[in-house]
Amino acid sequence: QFGDIFKYDVTIAISENTESLEELQDYINSNQYINSSETLMVKTVDAEKNGETIASVSMSVFQNPEVVDDYITLRTMDDHTPLELTDDGVIISQKMSNVLKAKAGDSFSVVNSDGSKTELKVTGVTENYAMNYIYMTPTLYRNVYGEEPSYNMIYGELPIQTTQWEDLLTQ
């Protein structure tokens, strides 16, 4: 699915000890070895339907939802109609849709690390067969959780995809 669904080349984990997210973003954006980057929050939650835990899920909240398509293709499985993140609900992966038996318009709950439950409305189902994913906007995250997303990941695109570039980045 890399290249077709997942279009980013590198992931950079942001340490909890990072003092300035803005400085880190500026450094990455000025790096000659990275064409573009996007900051996001990724966390694992459990999905629940009708009171039963169904699956472990990777929740992604992009800092700038308008650029999601530069890094991940959100589209329907059947006719590849593009899907857009909105503040009205979440987009879930096809695999998660199958496991939850959920479609656009349905709701399900996620169990957070503190044991609390949050109900989410599905606004779209995106092509992805590998894992269970939830995608949402930062505004929806704030509205649902009452707090700012804690950004902990950066996706990046390399100018040229060669082993030489990858070796330079890891030095």
Strand residues, percent? 25-35%
Can you list the strand order of the major beta sheet?
A: 2-3-7-4-6-5
Q: List unreliable stretches of 5+ residues.
A: none
Euclidean distance between termini CA atoms: 27 Å
**Rounded Rg:** 17 Å
Total beta strands: 8
Mean pLDDT: 86
Major pleated sheet? 6 strands, mixed, barrel
- Number of distinct helices: 4
- What helical percentage do the residues reach? 10-25%
Oligomer: single chain
Order of helices and strands: EHEEEHEEEHEH
Global structural class: alpha+beta
Shape: globular
What does this structure look like?
This protein is an alpha+beta fold and 171 residues long. 19% of the residues lie in helices and 33% in strands. The chain has a six-stranded mixed barrel with strand order 2-3-7-4-6-5. Strand 5 and strand 6 form a beta hairpin. The longest helix has 10 residues. It starts with 9 loop residues before the first strand and ends with a helix. The mean pLDDT is 86.
Task: Describe this structure in a few short sentences.
It contains 4 helices and 8 strands, in the order βαβββαβββαβα.
What is this structure's SSE topology?
Elements: E1 10-13, H1 21-30, E2 36-49, E3 52-62, E4 90-93, H2 94-100, E5 107-111, E6 117-126, E7 133-136, H3 138-145, E8 153-157, H4 163-169
Parallel strand pairs: 3-7, 4-6
Antiparallel strand pairs: 1-8, 2-3, 2-5, 2-8, 4-7, 5-6
Jot down its keywords:
six-stranded mixed beta barrel, 171 residues, 4 helices, alpha+beta
